[in-house]
């Protein structure tokens, strides 16, 4: 089977940076999974003895704690600072930006609207920076805005870094129709756009498309949904063991892309396996 890679795929700047930090601090542990990729987390554990805390209470005196790429809630960070532990912040700078915007704008009396997934660790972290927790709202769809009562007549909005800009524009349009003052911050990350645009183009020209990444990674799931729009035979896998030969029956060209947390060695294993299919 012939394979064509997307012109942009895989690790983004923030993930590369977090992994480099983790490799520098062997025998440390991360607060929450460092990135959304279990295989890479396992590699860091095996090769660099980087462990994982599930709870703040797991942190012991003199531990080295690495803060995950997606960030953690403000009060958790505050609590860690009260402990006798070394804190290494691997939060992606593009995630720190919306945290700081929310802090500043809510401090200036703006109601806060976050476009994102309320259950995502990044969004929970960003939300936690609002001065007034009663006036920070999270929506995934424009119609979710109907039920929201903002406490102020001025609104500031940020987006989860991996969200689609088209949907953000719909949300911003709705806000502007109903409110006098809306401050819009485009906090969506370019790395996501670049991988998405390349996946969109490639999925138009191939017979089957393989998206590699964590099944709980929001940017990988988005890549998959973009590919499905153009190529119904698009599959999301975490590694080469999940490939199914039936997907490639009567197909000539297979496109491959990967989410922003997928390491090159996993991508290479998948490509090798697909190329070996007759
Ligand atoms: Fe950061 Fe963008 Fe990656 S926000 S973690 S560089 S997808």
From TrEMBL:
It comes from the Bacteria. The active site is at 122 (proton donor). [4Fe-4S] cluster binds at residues 12, 92, 189. GO terms for molecular function: 4 iron, 4 sulfur cluster binding; 4-hydroxy-3-methylbut-2-enyl diphosphate reductase activity; metal ion binding. It catalyses: isopentenyl diphosphate + 2 oxidized [2Fe-2S]-[ferredoxin] + H2O = (2E)-4-hydroxy-3-methylbut-2-enyl diphosphate + 2 reduced [2Fe-2S]-[ferredoxin] + 2 H(+); dimethylallyl diphosphate + 2 oxidized [2Fe-2S]-[ferredoxin] + H2O = (2E)-4-hydroxy-3-methylbut-2-enyl diphosphate + 2 reduced [2Fe-2S]-[ferredoxin] + 2 H(+). Pfam families: LYTB. Pathway: Isoprenoid biosynthesis; isopentenyl diphosphate biosynthesis via DXP pathway; isopentenyl diphosphate from 1-deoxy-D-xylulose 5-phosphate: step 6/6; Isoprenoid biosynthesis; dimethylallyl diphosphate biosynthesis; dimethylallyl diphosphate from (2E)-4-hydroxy-3-methylbutenyl diphosphate: step 1/1. The keyword Metal-binding applies. Keywords: 4Fe-4S, Iron, Iron-sulfur, Isoprene biosynthesis, Metal-binding, Oxidoreductase. Dimethylallyl diphosphate binds at residues 36, 70, 120, 217-219, 261. This is 4-hydroxy-3-methylbut-2-enyl diphosphate reductase. It comes from Arcobacter caeni.
